Amino acid sequence: MQTFIVHNSHPRELLRDLGWKGFASFQVYVGSMILSGPLHTLFVASVIATTLLQGLIFDVWFALTCLITLIGYGGPAALVVAGLRRLGRSDLIAIQLLLPVYWVLHSIAGMRALHELLTRPYFWAKTLHGETRMARLGLARRTRAVSSSIGKD
Fold first, then answer.
1. Which positions ≥6 away from 87 have C-beta within 8 Å?
2. How many other C-beta atoms are found inside a 10 Å radius of the C-beta of residue 30?
3. What distances in angstroms separate CA 38 from CA 10, 17, 32, 41, 100, one per listed residue?
4. Each residue's pLDDT tens digit, 73-113
5. What is the number of other CB atoms lying within 10 angstroms of the CB of residue 8?
6. How far from each other are the two terminal CA atoms of the chain, in whole angstroms?
7. How far is residue 22's CA from residue 18's CA, in Å, rounded to a whole number?
8. Which of 34, 37, 86, 101 is within CB 3.0–4.6 Å of 107 for a Cys-Cys bond?
């Protein structure tokens, strides 16, 4: 959100720097990242509320809802599955069933970020990186391999 706000604080300069194609791409790309979580959560909530209040009614709206759900979940899921297969990580494909949960969590994080932006605009809730309870075996193996090969030349 901050990136979007900062870059759009002088839109004419951004347009001049990026050109109209780059400017439009930036607006769509970054804007869609900001809006995708809340829109997803709103869609899911409306589908659940409608189903609970009216039951399943097989009409044109039901068909449209199914189509939107299929495209909305199927497209990203297909991209992720293709990427995982390409990387040889088919073992992670089943986890993609949690993608809707991730999007709801993304929405909650977005709401929190918006609240912080409005109430504490100069606060940075920095995430600590590199701290883990799990051993990094792959990194340790590579480090030992590089260290052992250094002295052999």
1. none
2. 15
3. 26, 30, 10, 5, 12
4. 888 889 989 999 999 998 998 888 888 888 888 888 888 88
5. 14
6. 51
7. 5
8. 37
